[in-house]
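Subgroup meeting minutes
Present: P.N., E.W., G.H.
Scribe: E.W.

1. P.N. recapped why we're keeping a running log of single-chain structure predictions: easier to compare across weeks, and new members can see raw inputs and outputs side by side.
2. G.H. added today's entry (366 aa).
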Amino acid sequence: MQALVVSPPAPGVTLREMPEPEMSAESVLVEVLECGICGTDRDIVAGKYGTPPPGSKELILGHENLGQVREVGSRVSGFSVGDLVVATVRRGCGSCRFCRSGHSDFCETGRFTERGINGRHGYLAARYAEVPEYLVKVPSALRSHAVLLEPLSVVEKAVQQGRAVRGRFDALPGFPPERPLRALVTGTGAIGMLAALVLASEGCSVVAVDRHGADTPAAALLARIGAAHVDTAAGLAALGADRFDLILEASGSPTLDFDLLGRLAPNGTIVLTGIPGADPTAFPVRGGALLRSLVLENQVLVGSVNANRTHFERGLAHLAAFRERWGDVAERLVTERRPIAEYAAPLLGKAGATIKSVLTLPAGAP
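Output recorded in log:
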């Protein structure tokens, strides 16, 4: 079968023949329809990280996926040929308390694997085999944009973490507040835009920032959901004096992350989802002032990575809610679809104003 293959840590990616996945009585064979491309994929192609499965020098790329069941093992129930499915990404270590309870996103040992990233082949191939516990069935009504479910699961986990921190006020007088939660989203790629949709759908007053003007697809979609868009190419001063109760960071810029601390309201929370490069270059930080503010204003800085099955399921509910409230806004986050043979443009080129690039496999071709 054809697959997009990398050989980390060497840079580069090739489309070539790979062995068919091995089926068992306990597994499901899935024909891949399409896969989204994200910064993680581009970093793996650039040789920055990525780990092949044990005993192999090659890794099949891809973790944002949508497929259709082609074959069901004799000992599998609950799935039928033709079902649409999205597979989760992380596989737990099997030993820590979190992985044993289905929360591998909080793995304590670091011995987890991840499809298409770390130790397991991914989904940018014609087919894959998987056990049912890692497959989430998708309603046919969401076929047009269910490929967004994996990045949306990351957002669901991050928002959940932010709200969990806010939950420390539940027993206090005056909570919940009379005004909407003021939320800032940094970055208008897929993660940032999905975060804006989730937060707006939950009643937050949302501002999203990037380094582009108002003539991008992202800015137009933000206007449709009632979120403000601010161009911060000249810095966060473009926000005026505004401070925010919740900041969801989706840019991966360490300098911006520290600047954002100055935009937190008292009792505010920043949730970091962007992963900065491990650049050893130092840059100045007003460490004392920032830490002083964290302490004196009860502020919180928290990281959030990956997701578990519950976040995928919550994402399905949100995709349906987005459509009911805003029509095709979520669908329009997919700004380009290309056949897998045209992988070079989204994986090796610059993202530009694209929100989400998707590669289609032969089974998912129009």
